[in-house]
Request: fold
Amino acid sequence: MVGEEGAFVLGWAEVLTDEELSVTLKVLCMSEEEFKEYKEQDGWEDDSEEEENSTLSNEALSRLKTPCKKLLYDSVLLTLESYGSDLKAEQDLLNNKEAYEKLSRREQQALHVRYGQKRILHQLLELVQ
Reply:
């Protein structure tokens, strides 16, 4: 369901792999009976509800059902725990000109990437609380 990389791609305004995330959330939040029916039908047939919810904008994420929100929230927390530092530490390093300039160009770029990723993840936490 997730694809080869096993990850979802999030942007500032929406989920970029929205179809994969939608299907994954639906399947993971199904009851056993719903899942059996899903497997028997080889997935869902095209219906207007799925088409309506296929784009996972930030607004749509905030309207997800509680079990899906909880699953996303817990997943984001696990992802954030996998980093070696928290968002505040990254921000402090970015704001400390002397420490920042001691980093190599590659380390500076990595810092900006990590900081951006963590900001997006924190935004997602707020949306699904």
About this structure: The CA atoms of residues 45 and 78 lie 33 Å apart. The domain at 18-128 is CATH 3.90.1420.10 (set domain protein methyltransferase, domain 2).
